[in-house]
Write a structure and sequence with these properties.
Endonuclease III, domain 1, eight-stranded mixed β-sheet, about 40% helix, elongated, disordered C terminus, DNA-binding
DNA sequence: AATTCGGGGAC
DNA sequence: GTCCCAGAATT
């Protein structure tokens, strides 16, 4: 399987969009455009690029500007650490590179906010270095063309697609080739409705020939958020509080929590507490607090408070700890203040 | 390996 | 609502 790089470049030469940074060779301007366009659509970044070039015509202008002026120009674009890293890198170039923009991939990588993609883009477009710039567009084009199923957000996938992109790269026109791949992904090889009949790679695209291009690219499946429901018992005897040690293979493993019982949704909303009530202790039920969000779990709680000297007698397997030693309970912080009551 | 950082457009 | 965008830094 060989990649028709010439078809792609011919298409790019005649069909490429006219963008503010097209044909630009100044590495500073290329870098500026690439950082602005990180996770950002061309239409959204367009005016920001124009404004930045006008406000800071040179690296030194950017390096010496007051930070709030930089951030103000960035306002509304999002990912604001990009703006801070941008100026930090400009100051680094002034202080440690004699004001000369780094001209190799490995040196560009040293700049804050410049990762694999941006270093490759600047090195290839401004200096003609033969390194493939792999962004979201390139993942899509390559995975469809070669029908590569490896997840693009996995460590293996990133390595594999970088190798593949470097292999198909036209080393005589590295900058144009990288831009052509991205241009194709942005205007033809679209995520939902690719315009295959207008694609210069159509006749050799494996995804098109197998009619399964929409199965690519592949991503690691993201786990669904699971709802879990707990009754939480705050048992207080004298100045001691009952806790239990969490077992492994679940949240808070190895940590102490209040005794709690996990229920399904139905029982969570209609609790049965006959056993506890017959012992004559006063039960105080809180309102259901706001759910606590973990990475892939949403935890719902109802808290019950008991107090009484003999309460320790009716519970087994509890560890009683001094109340003052319970500052590090692995519970949602908003609930901890109840401990002091 | 998983998470965070953002605003916006397409569907 | 979901997905994606010319990704990188942090944990």
């Amino acid at each position: 399987m060989d990649f028709p790089a010439n078809n792609l470049l011919d298409w790019y030469d005649t069909q490429k969009r006219d963008l503010p940074w097209r044909g630009e060779k100044n590495p500073y301007y290329i870098w500026l455009s690439e950082v602005i366009l990180q996770q950002t659509r061309v239409e959204q970044g367009w005016d920001y690029y124009v404004n930045f070039v006008q406000a800071f015509p040179t690296v030194r202008d950017l390096a010496t500007a007051p930070q709030d002026k930089v951030l103000r120009l960035w306002q509304g674009l999002g990912y604001y650490s990009r703006a801070r890293n941008l100026q930090s890198a400009a100051q680094y170039i002034e202080a440690h590179c004699g004001g000369i923009f780094p001209n190799r991939y490995t040196d560009l990588l040293k700049l804050k906010g410049v990762g694999n993609y941006t270093a490759a883009a600047v090195a290839s477009i401004a200096f003609g270095e033969a390194v493939a710039a792999v962004d979201g567009n390139v993942y899509r084009v390559l995975s469809r063309f070669f029908r590569v199923s490896t997840a693009i957000d996995s460590t293996e996938g990133k390595k594999q697609f970088q190798h593949l992109a470097d292999k198909v790269l036209d080393k005589n026109r590295a900058g144009d080739f990288n831009q052509a791949m991205m241009e194709l992904g942005a205007t033809v090889c679209l995520p939902k409705k690719p315009l295959c009949t207008a694609c210069p790679l159509m006749s050799a695209c494996q995804g098109y020939l197998h009619k399964d291009f929409l199965n690519f690219p592949n991503k690691t499946p993201k786990k669904a958020v699971k709802n879990r429901y707990f009754h939480v018992f705050v048992l207080q005897a004298d100045d001691k509080i009952a806790v239990t040690l969490r077992q492994n293979k679940d949240i808070w493993h190895g940590l102490y929590t209040y005794p709690l019982q996990e229920l399904d949704l139905e029982n969570f909303n209609a609790p049965k507490l006959n056993t506890l009530e017959t012992h004559g202790f006063v039960l105080q039920k809180t309102e259901t607090p706001k759910p606590h969000l973990l990475t892939h779990q949403k935890l719902h709680f109802v808290f019950y408070f008991f107090a009484g000297e003999k309460i320790a007698d009716i519970f087994d397997n509890m560890i009683w700890k001094e109340q003052k030693n319970l500052k590090n309970l692995p519970f949602p912080r908003p609930f901890l203040p109840f401990l002091g009551e």
